[in-house]
Amino acid sequence: MIELRPFNSLGAANHGWLDAHHHFSFAGYHDPSRVNWGSLRVWNDDTIAPKTGFPTHPHNDMEIITYVRSGAITHRDSMGNEGRTEAGDVQVMSAGSGIQHSEYNLEDEETQIFQIWIIPEERGGKPDWGARPFPKADRAGDFVPLASGVANDDDALPIRTDARVLGATVKAGESVTYTTHDPSRHLYLVPATGKVKIENVEANARDGVAITQRESVT
């Protein structure tokens, strides 16, 4: 099954400082057919105005991955972690038994992020946060693990569940194939820019594509 979820069909809320689009039910947006996709609970497409952001707030029992599309995001948390993640790079917060954090766009321009929440396999545990740059050339023509709980994904930021967040840069006219070896897997694809075709389904930038019952997809 391959299901296109066009950007204009997503939940949306514009708070002035935050223009948010929700691929799954979140905050005031609820769609019983879009609560989760396997263990994927949230995929938010956020545009954050300069010098604004999310003040300190709590999380628990969630793996929260932030991919910065443009600009930069600055993180601070109750564990003493602090860092600035730039466009093309990734940060991961394992909320575990509980953590408080803030995320601000301290830049002079808008920041655009994908924020992805994945349900962990076990509740509790010590909270953790990490970030790292990923050389863009490493993603050319192939899927590269950015965050992963899968064995042997040693270069990815760790998450506490049997899932992966992958990134790829595909040039015009080229293709890339991802093999799951397990048709029960749930895949979710969001092009950050451009247009892609998944089998016979065309997806534009920021559309969602829900995929299952496939051992591989191109």
How would you summarize what this structure contains?
It contains no helices and 21 strands. It has strands at 2-5, 11-14, 18-22, 40-48, 52-59, 63-70, 72-77, 82-86, 90-94, 99-105, 111-118, 128-132, 144-148, 157-158, 164-167, 178-179, 187-189, 195-198, 201-204, 208-211, 216-217. The strands form six sheets. The chain has a seven-stranded antiparallel sheet with strand order 2-3-4-11-6-9-12, with no helix packed on it. A four-stranded antiparallel sheet has the order 5-10-7-8, with no helix packed on it. A three-stranded antiparallel sheet has the order 1-20-17, with no helix packed on it.
Protein described:
The chain has 218 residues and is mainly β. The chain has a single domain, classed as Sandwich (Jelly Rolls). The protein is 0% helix and 48% strand. Strands 2-3-4-11-6-9-12 form a seven-stranded antiparallel beta sheet, with no helix packed on it. A four-stranded antiparallel beta sheet has the order 5-10-7-8, with no helix packed on it. β7 and β8 form a beta hairpin.
Annotate the secondary structure layout:
Layout: E1 2-5, E2 11-14, E3 18-22, E4 40-48, E5 52-59, E6 63-70, E7 72-77, E8 82-86, E9 90-94, E10 99-105, E11 111-118, E12 128-132, E13 144-148, E14 157-158, E15 164-167, E16 178-179, E17 187-189, E18 195-198, E19 201-204, E20 208-211, E21 216-217
Parallel strand pairs: 13-14
Antiparallel strand pairs: 1-20, 2-3, 3-4, 4-11, 5-10, 6-9, 6-11, 7-8, 7-10, 9-12, 13-15, 16-21, 17-20, 18-19
